[in-house]
Every structure is written in structure tokens, then in C-alpha cells.
């Protein structure tokens, strides 16, 4: 089957599967790609929170044809055309050399509001000519029913079930940092897998560490850790809710990214009571306080990231402070609280 034929089949299938939209009564339609479980989970949380507060009814689906008089919220996927509806685009992260920046005029003509979770993304967009009055910066939320902190005996049981030795200092990384959906041997540099590996290899020379990985396309990281003889475990999960269990096995979560929109691990680590070491990226810059809720380093600062991990291992008072203050920050970012901003700043003005 040729590429042209395959594309026609996909397009026609999308139209057919959109037919139920003719009968949908929800005023807000949140559009996802149908594959990325993180994006889908965020969309579902938005819809549930709007309903729980009796603000509006929303429907989540990857199929967006046959709507009229609705709000279409494209959550982290491109807006393919101009619709006869009000349109919101969520754009989480962006690089200064991002090819999408060349399409700013086209993007602006197709949407009514652009939502992002980080001030850095807004700054880059406005520097490239996007109208500031069309941009809304609203932080990401967290579902505290899904992400919780377990007591010490439960954490010990989970670690044992993963085959992690009791005395190991466990460093976590749950993300997709390889191109495509295969082995992931070609790294996505914006996620900083090279920095992550450089740092944990240094720490492994000083401490008895174990790296716990999750997410698809982690081939580059796994290959680096194998060649450096750094112990690691990789668990690929089938349900986003299972990520909470992996957090319980950690001593620290390390974010080494060069660019991010949130990242999700920021809120998830806080909610699960795991100390966080991170580069200054995305929403981290807006809400994390160095030494209070996280230990921060500039992008690519391997020395500082390494020093933070070593310090955290040796300083129980610091660990306790990061855990307690992180849990407070997670409470501040509950969907039940943030949904009021999404309603007032994004949805209500367009209804």
C-alpha cells in the first residue's frame, strides 16, 4: 500500500469515527492524539474537574470533525485547519530553533487562545511575533488520588519486588527520551539523556546507586548505563496509574532536560514525597524554589547536578525539607484548585 493510499485511509477513518460528534452535547471538546497516555490523562483530568465543579461538560477524543458552536481544545497536537468553532491550542514546550516557529502566522490564524504551562514558552512565542494577548500561562495540575506517598514498609516491599538492594540510593527517570516508538537508540537531546547518564555515571563512582527507568524508547540510556556498569531496572508500564508505584521505590528523581513544558515529574515527585533534582526548565523555573522544594542547576551543569545528588544522599535534614515542602506544593497544584483558572482564563471567555 502506497503512502498516499495509507494517508487517505487514515483521513477517511478519522471522518467516519467522528460521526458521533454530530450528536454530542458537550460544549468543550478536548482533542488528543489518542496515543500519548500523559496527554490523554491531562485531558481527562481537565474534563473531570470541569464536571466536578459544575462548570461545564467536556468530552475527550482524538476525533474532531462535525463540530459546530463548540470549543475545540487541541491538547499538545497541531490544529490542522481553521474551524467554525472557537479553538484553543496547548503548546507545552518549544525550542528557540523549533521548526514550528516558522508557522506562527498559520498557527495564529487558526486559534483563538494559546495555552502553555511555562513562562519560558510564552517568552519564546512572543519573541517570534505571537500576540501576547492570545497567550494564557496556566500551570499543570496533578491528580492527588493517583499520586500519593506510601509509608516506609510499603516502599521497602516495592523496592524488593523490583529487585533493588536495600542499601541502594535509587535515582528515578520516567520519560520518553528517544526518537520514535522503537528502541530509542537515537536520543532526543532536549530531554537531556546524555546529561542524565553523565551525571549518574559520576555519582556511581561515589555511591551505591541503582537507576529506575520507565517509559518507552529508553535504548540510549540503557546502553550507556550497561556500558558504564551502572545497575538499573527498566519497567515499561501499560497504565499511567502504575507510575505511582515506581515513585515509591525512589530516593530521588533526576530531571536533566534542556527543554521542558512542565515536566510532569515535577508535580509527581512532589506528590509522592520524592526529593527532586532538576535543571531550570519549563514550569520548574516558575514554581520550584532552590533548596526548599527542589535542588536546581542550570541546563547542562553536570557538576552541580552531581553535587546535588551527593549532598542529598548525605543530608537527611535537606531530604526531609524537600519532601515536606514538595508535598505542600503538590497540594497547591491539585486539579480541583487549578481548574478554576482554566475555566476563567481559557474556556469561559470563549463560550
What does this structure look like?
By secondary structure, this protein is of the alpha/beta class. Helices cover 40% and strands 15% of the residues. The longest helix has 17 residues, at 316-332.
Strand portion: 5-15%
Rounded to the nearest angstrom, the distance between the terminal CA atoms is: 44 Å
- Kindly report the name of the CATH homologous superfamily of the largest domain: Glycogen Phosphorylase B
**Highest CATH level, the class of the largest domain:** Alpha Beta
The whole-number mean of residue pLDDT values reads 92
Task: Summarize this structure as a short list of keywords or feature phrases.
six-stranded parallel sheet, Rossmann fold, 2 domains, 15% strand, single chain, globular, 40% helix, 351 residues, alpha/beta
Protein topology:
Layout lengths: L2 H15 L10 E4 L5 H16 L5 E4 L9 E5 L10 E5 L13 H7 L2 E4 L2 H9 L7 E3 L14 H10 L7 E6 L18 H12 L4 E6 L4 H9 L4 E4 L7 H5 L4 E4 L8 H9 L3 E4 L2 H6 L7 E3 L4 H13 L1 H17 L2 H13 L4
Condensed summary:
It is built from 13 helices and 12 strands. The chain has 351 residues and is of the alpha/beta class.
Amino acid at each position: 500500500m502506497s503512502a498516499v493510499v495509507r494517508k487517505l485511509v487514515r483521513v477517511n477513518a478519522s471522518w467516519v469515527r467522528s460521526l458521533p460528534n454530530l450528536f454530542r452535547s458537550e460544549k468543550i471538546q478536548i482533542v488528543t492524539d489518542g496515543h500519548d497516555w500523559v496527554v490523554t490523562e491531562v485531558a481527562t483530568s481537565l474534563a473531570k474537574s470541569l464536571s466536578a465543579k459544575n462548570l461545564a461538560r467536556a468530552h475527550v477524543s482524538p476525533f474532531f470533525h462535525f463540530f459546530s458552536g463548540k470549543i475545540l481544545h487541541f491538547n499538545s497536537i497541531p490544529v490542522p485547519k481553521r474551524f467554525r468553532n472557537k479553538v484553543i491550542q496547548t503548546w507545552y514546550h518549544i525550542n528557540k530553533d523549533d521548526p514550528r516557529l516558522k508557522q506562527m502566522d498559520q498557527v495564529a490564524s487558526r486559534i483563538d487562545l494559546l495555552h502553555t504551562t511555562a513562562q519560558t514558552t510564552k517568552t519564546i512565542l512572543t519573541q517570534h511575533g505571537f500576540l501576547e494577548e492570545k497567550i494564557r500561562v496556566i500551570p499543570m495540575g496533578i491528580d492527588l488520588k493517583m499520586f500519593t506517598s506510601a509509608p516506609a514498609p510499603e516502599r521497602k516491599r516495592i523496592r524488593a519486588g523490583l529487585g533493588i538492594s536495600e542499601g541502594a540510593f535509587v535515582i528515578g527517570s520516567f520519560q520518553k527520551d528517544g526518537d520514535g516508538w522503537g528502541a530509542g537508540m537515537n536520543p532526543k537531546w532536549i530531554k537531556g539523556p546524555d546529561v542524565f547518564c553523565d551525571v549518574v555515571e559520576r555519582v556511581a563512582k561515589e555511591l551505591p546507586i541503582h537507576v529506575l527507568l520507565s517509559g518507552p524508547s529508553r535504548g540510549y540510556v540503557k546502553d550507556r548505563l550497561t556500558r558504564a556498569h551502572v545497575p538499573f531496572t527498566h519497567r515499561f508500564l501499560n497504565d499511567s496509574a502504575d507510575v505511582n508505584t515506581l515513585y515509591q521505590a525512589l530516593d530521588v528523581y533526576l530531571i536533566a532536560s534542556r527543554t521542558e513544558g512542565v515536566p510532569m515529574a515535577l508535580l509527581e515527585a512532589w506528590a509522592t514525597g520524592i526529593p527532586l533534582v532538576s535543571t531550570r526548565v519549563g514550569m520548574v523555573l516558575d514554581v520550584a524554589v532552590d533548596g526548599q522544594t527542589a535542588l536546581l542547576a542550570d541546563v547542562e551543569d553536570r557538576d552541580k547536578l552531581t553535587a546535588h545528588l551527593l549532598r542529598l544522599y548525605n543530608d537527611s535534614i535537606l531530604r526531609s525539607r524537600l519532601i515536606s515542602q514538595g508535598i505542600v506544593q503538590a497540594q497547591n497544584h491539585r486539579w480541583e484548585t487549578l481548574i478554576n483558572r482554566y475555566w476563567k482564563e481559557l474556556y469561559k471567555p470563549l463560550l
